[in-house]
Design brief:
Strand order of the largest sheet of chain B: 1-2
Number of helices of chain B: 11
Mean pLDDT of chain B: 86
Strand content of chain A: under 5%
Oligomer: heterodimer
Shape of chain A: globular
Helix content of chain A: over 70%
Helix content of chain B: over 70%
Strand content of chain B: under 5%
Radius of gyration of chain B: 19 Å
Shape of chain B: globular
Order of helices and strands of chain B: HHHHEEHHHHHHH
Largest sheet of chain B: 2 strands, antiparallel
Number of strands of chain A: 0
Radius of gyration of chain A: 20 Å
Low-confidence stretches of chain A: 1-21, 325-332
Chain lengths: ~350, ~290
């Protein structure tokens, strides 16, 4: 085992120096153009899609933001997590409760839900980020499952029946509730864009650079005098906030949240999306998320709800067909891009 | 009848019984991690397979013979699935990808089980010859739960003897310590690791079977079992037999006392226990030394 560790350590170090330069620095204008085109397509979806596929697209966006949060930890910081569903749930349940009891405003729900996700992440992360690698994966799995079990037994939030009767959101406090499916979808899209932009800013900030430093050589970072514990905890808290925002988008779309929405499957699919889409680039995993929702809810509908089984197979196939691992996807794509130009 | 119980005695004994079957399940997870360096996220699913073996066999006829047959079949099914998982995982080197692979297998197994046995809770009866009660401190107590404790003790002693006192155990410990050296003296370590993986999975399946009369069998139980096993392994320390034993006893008590006292917050207690151990002993209470499993 020690031999392989050394080899992978060397590879990580060599790639690491390249990775510290952000890849998007190469073609900023091209990237911006692609982003604008995709955004226009996403905004136009309500004009071309029927209500059911549109609600599916809304759920995919909310799930996509959850995946962005997972990618911040797994891809950017190199700490694979199965626990972001806990903060997703914190955001979703908080938004739902606020919606029922306090305010129909989506903005208020977004703010409170994001804070709830970040606060829970701060508390639980204080323990979780003390570990690394596969033990971190175990702890985060435990956090996610405990959150899942907790909401399933807490009667305040409907226990295993879930939280129903959440009214449709309005944008401003006291405003008209959004009832038309297209408007709801646009609100979800707006939350997604806000969350995605925030994650991108974090990714390009000095903090993002430190996070990649943690991934590529935590010891070196510590030797340079950086406090890696607080870097990891801050990143974990921010990722928790992004997951919380994703949760608020999810309930805005579904107007319902149940323990099943933050189960083991959801955590597994979020991690799968990151791996499928290419860890570290924030865009890739979002596409992976769209793929996962498409397979589970759309394709699964045609084969009598066996979407989960199908995704299990996708998992296994992905592990074998991406022999260079998580980083391999990204590097192959990058090399192709540089050979084209 | 339960009303006659002196509440505390019963709770502690229940915790001991739960801890015993959790030990059977967690020790496999821990040993596979210790030897193969693989986190088997399909461990809970394998355990649920064992529970459904109970549903299929002595669920229909809770006789003594069926019970023994079910144990044998659960062990066989578990061993085979462990062997298959080991073969699938062995060409994959990266930790995250190994975890993803077993995660995918967990989803596949869980979906297939749901396909075969439905989404409802299936209760599993206590086998006939263990269905009586005995008097414990003046209170009647089910024999079956005492049998669970006995099973835990027997397996713990057997594992200790196998790992520490036999040639096979020496080979396993040597494989952990220095795989290349064991290969060099002509032992195929892949086979050794597959056998350990199979053994761990067999224990998980038997543990799931023994727990079935108490926990039942239903979709989702696999993840709860995996969660408890992970918490046990983290609390006890990775890769150590004693750690798994201590962790299982702690989690068994925290879980039963938590559910009986503050039902809605039992899972918070579990996290609190996990956090407390991680804060003060990040390596777990009784971590394995390299090459020593006890």
């Amino acid at each position: 085992m020690s031999a392989t560790n050394t080899v992978s350590g060397m590879t990580a170090g060599r790639l690491g120096t390249q990775k510290l330069l952000h890849p998007s620095a190469q073609h900023p204008m091209l990237r911006l153009a692609v982003a604008v085109i995709i955004l226009v397509v996403l905004v136009a979806l309500p004009f071309v899609l029927a209500p059911y596929p549109l609600s599916l697209a809304g759920r995919a966006l909310a799930f996509g933001l959850l995946v962005v949060s997972v990618d911040l930890l797994t891809g950017v910081m190199g700490m694979p997590t199965l626990g972001q569903v806990a903060y997703f749930g914190a955001g979703a349940y908080t938004a739902g409760l606020v919606g029922i009891h306090v305010s129909g405003s989506g903005l208020v729900q977004l703010a409170v839900g994001t804070l709830a996700g970040a606060a829970l992440a701060l508390v639980t992360g204080a323990v979780a980020v003390r570990t690394a690698g596969i033990v971190f994966l175990m702890i985060t799995l435990a956090i996610g499952e405990l959150a899942h079990i907790s909401v399933g037994s807490l009667s305040v939030v409907g226990a295993s029946n879930g939280l129903a009767g959440i009214p449709p959101v309005s944008v401003l406090p006291g405003g008209e509730p959004l009832i038309v499916p297209g408007y709801i979808y646009w609100w979800v899209l707006a939350v997604f864009v806000i969350g995605f932009v925030a994650a991108t800013i974090v990714n390009r900030s000095p903090l993002g650079r430190s996070m990649r430093g943690v991934r590529d050589g935590e010891l070196r970072l510590r030797a340079l005098g950086q406090n890696t514990y607080s870097i990891k905890l801050i990143a974990y808290t921010i990722a928790g906030g992004v997951a919380g925002a994703a949760g608020t988008a999810w309930v805005a779309q579904t107007q319902f949240i149940s323990p099943g929405d933050l189960g083991f499957d959801m955590a597994a699919f979020a991690l799968l999306s990151v791996v499928l889409g290419g860890a570290g680039s924030l865009w890739g995993p979002v596409i992976g998320a769209g793929l996962v929702i498409f397979v589970r809810d759309w394709l699964g509908g045609y084969i009598e709800g066996r979407g989960t089984l199908l995704l299990g197979v996708v998992f296994v196939v992905a592990v074998y067909l991406l022999p260079r691992g998580v980083a391999g996807i990204k590097w192959r794509a990058l090399r192709r891009k540089s050979s084209e130009s | 009848m339960l009303a006659w119980f002196d509440a505390n005695t019963a709770t502690i004994l229940n915790g001991l019984a739960l801890g015993s079957v959790l030990f059977l399940i967690a020790v496999g997870l821990s040993l596979v991690f210790g030897t193969m360096d693989v986190l088997n996220l399909a461990h809970g699913a394998v355990s649920l397979m064992g529970a459904y073996v109970g549903v299929a066999l002595y669920g229909a006829a809770p006789s003594t013979g069926m019970f023994l047959l079910a144990i044998a079949i659960a062990a066989g099914v578990g061993f085979a699935s462990g062997g298959i998982l080991a073969a699938m995982v062995s060409p994959v080197r990266n930790h995250l990808r190994q975890a993803l692979l077993t995660l995918g297998m967990a989803l596949i197994i869980a979906e297939l089980l749901q396909e075969m046995f439905g989404a409802d809770v299936r209760s599993v009866p206590v086998p006939e010859f263990l269905s009586s009660t005995v008097s414990m401190l003046g209170n009647p107590y089910p024999v079956y739960r005492l049998a669970m404790v006995a099973a835990g003790i027997v397996v713990a002693i057997l594992l200790y003897i196998i790992l520490e006192r036999t040639r096979a155990g020496a080979i396993v410990r040597a494989t952990v310590a220095d795989r290349a050296m064991v290969e060099a003296i002509g032992i195929r370590t892949k086979v050794v690791l597959a056998l350990v993986f199979g053994g761990g999975a067999a224990l998980a399946a038997v543990g799931g079977l023994l727990a079935a009369p108490i926990l039942g069998a239903q979709p989702g139980l696999d993840n709860q079992i995996l969660l408890l096993a992970l918490v046990i392994v983290v609390i006890g320390g990775l890769g150590s037999l004693r750690g798994a034993l201590l962790g299982a006893l702690v989690v068994g008590q925290v879980q039963t006392i938590g559910v009986s006292m503050v039902n809605e917050f039992a899972s918070f207690l579990l996290f609190a226990a996990l956090a407390a151990v991680l804060l003060f002993r990040p390596q777990g209470l009784l971590p394995a030394r390299k090459g020593a499993h006890t």
